Amino acid sequence: MSRNPDCIFCKIAAGGIPSTKLLETEEALAFMDIGPLAPGHVLLIPKEHYETLDVMPAEQAAAMLSHLPSLVRAVQAATGCEGINVLQNNGAIAGQLVPHVHFHVIPRDPGGTFTFNWPAGAYEDGQMDTLADAIRKEL
Ligand code: AMP
Ligand code: ZN
Q1: Which residue puts its alpha carbon closest to atom 17 of ligand 1?
Q2: pLDDT class for 139, splitting at 50, 70, 90?
Q3: What is the mean pLDDT of residues 94-117?
């Protein structure tokens, strides 16, 4: 198991610093976020240290993400929230503060303080297809 001794989520995964754990398997851990965007905000992480999602092997990502539906259901049932956002910040520019892959499960209710902009844009002629070709080539 590769861990980073300076990483706070590796320390949590190793039990070196306390957390309020929700589920734990060989590959994954879910625990309460200590700075919740809404009550019931939880985090799902791989136990192995990967800074960002793009460097995770697919099998490890699949093992971790297999717990996501049940976690979402549990948060929804326990909080009675109306909706849920699943969020994964990948890179500092995207708001990632802790450089160890994690998925946020965030309850949403009317009047909640967590909101975000969704400034949908539009493509110029041909731009979408050009980008789609470029992305397909990378897959
Ligand atoms: P991000 O900005 O996506 O990197 O989110 C990092 C998240 O980790 C934030 O929501 C923090 O509240 C949460 N966090 C940081 N340290 C801890 C900790 N020791 N236990 C639980 N959650 C933490
Ligand atoms: Zn780590």
Answers
A1: 34
A2: very high
A3: 96
